[in-house]
């Protein structure tokens, strides 16, 4: 049953991925302006924040 739970969470994550992009972009843009980061670091942060936000939202959907 454990593998089934992981698969359902990943399916939820893929559906939420596009909705997590905008908050991740805003957060990385804020950090870029505050700490004077390069565009390459901003892009990397956007990717990481998008994946983390989508995973967290998928886990909350799975738990709830």
Brief characterization of the structure:
The protein has 64 residues and is mainly alpha-helical.
Q: How would you state the average pLDDT, rounded? A: 92
User: What about the largest sheet?
Assistant: none
Structural class: mainly alpha
Rg for CA atoms: 14 Å
β-strand amount: under 5%
N-to-C SSE string, H for helix and E for strand:
HH
Structure, explained:
This protein has 64 residues and is mainly α. It has one domain. It is 92% helix and 0% strand. It contains 2 helices and no strands. It starts with a helix and ends with a helix. The model has no long low-confidence stretch (mean pLDDT 92).
Element layout with pairings:
Blueprint: H1 2-35, H2 39-63
Feature tags:
single chain; 64 residues; mainly alpha; 2 helices
């Amino acid at each position: 049953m454990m593998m089934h739970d992981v698969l359902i969470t990943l399916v939820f994550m893929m559906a939420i991925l596009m909705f997590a992009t905008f908050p991740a972009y805003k957060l990385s843009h804020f950090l870029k302006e505050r700490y004077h980061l390069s565009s390459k670091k901003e892009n990397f942060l956007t990717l990481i924040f998008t994946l983390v936000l989508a995973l967290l939202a998928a886990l909350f959907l799975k738990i709830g």
